[in-house]
Structure of Polycomb group RING finger protein 3:
Amino acid sequence: MERRIKLKTLNEHITCEICRGYFIDATTVTECLHTFCKSCLVKHLEENNTCPTCENVIHQSHPLQYISFDRTMQDIVYKLVPNLMDNEMQREREFYKSRNLPCPKDMPQVHDSDDKANEQAHQEADYHRQDEQVNVCLECISDKLRNLKRRFIRCSSQITITHLKKFLAKKVLNGIDRYKDIDILCNDELLGKDHTLKFVYVTRWRFKDPPLRLQYRPRIDL
């Protein structure tokens, strides 16, 4: 039996919180999985580095590298909302026509072997290879969590404590979604989720020898 659902019951899941319209070029923040129109999100990130919905820091210096086009979501929106794709395409053509420019979506797509190689290289690029690197030792201080097999890691100074929590959750809690169940400390002081390793090193480890020693434990609600 076919069940009909009113579109308005789904609107909160397929509309952008910035412009309040249906997703156009749906783009998702890879850190928290919140989705927005691409143009809305890019404009927001020109002056901010946080997610417009949850306000978590996406990345201290390169937030645009942590968003990606969500084709599945966009396909769903186009299937659910009548004429949205056709209307948007028409508006886009009129926009470029008014400026005497060809519409990119009407231009033939050329993909030679070099283009594919460059695209693959771009996708596989390590965006942090030019960042200052920090040597870190992660030590467990609770018998309720297991020790890492490899306590020593080397990573970008720009990653945040939240990134480390997700890494630890995947390793010791068998699920990245449980990262909020972990506390990370330095010198017995609880670290904020948005602190970068650079900030921690400068403020709490400046006059000590490397590696930066951090401790982890199950979260304690204060």
Summary: The radius of gyration is 22 Å.
